Amino acid sequence: MLVALGLLFVAIVGQSLLTGVIGAAILSAVGLTLADPTAIVVIVVFNQLALIGIGAVYLTRRLDGIPFRKPSKNGVQWLVGGLVMMFVVYGLQTLVYSATGLENPPDALAQAGAAEPWVLLAMAVVAIVFVGPGEELFYRGAIQGRLRRAFGPTGAIALASLLFAAVHIPNYLLGNVSLLAPGVLFNLGLIVVIGAIIGAVYEYTENLLIPILIHGLYDAIILVGVYSGIAPYL
Hints:
By secondary structure, the protein is mainly alpha-helical. Helix content is about 80%, strand content about 0%. It has eight helices and no strands. The longest helix is centred in the middle third of the chain and has 49 residues, at about 120-165.
């Protein structure tokens, strides 16, 4: 557990350095700051680059390589099944908000998208190219892979999913939303569920490409749906 938390600390430091130095310099060159709504695209890209680098290095040096290969027929079935389960969770989330009147708290991306709608389309591309690979290499590959050695598959999925949800907390802090708001707690709980779904798919397939595709495609489809007005942002 300490190793997993240490990896998370290294990732946070790496993200801060990449975003705060290189990302900020790029934004400054085009007349923007980290506080600009459109800056979230650059921030997310550099955050994910840090995760890709750290996850790939740890998997290669400590966990006997990156389990990444062309999906088998069974892998494709898990890919489709994982996506379906993710959208079932999204549908239940939408239903709960609609039926209860629970307020959906806007995070930093929702606010940026409201200010500059094109950001949603840009983030859809970023989701496939950077977010899927970055978060899955790190949280499922490195974190879950390391925890599996100590806690077994079930414990690793649970703990990695909790850490995965915890790192989404800053999204709400940047949106100036109280972490005790019912909508925030509800959303964080669902992120744990989503992390568990992806984590379980990884354990069954032993192929990181499957969770990478599930994660990237799910985020991209939702973002395009929000941009086009046919899906709510949750």
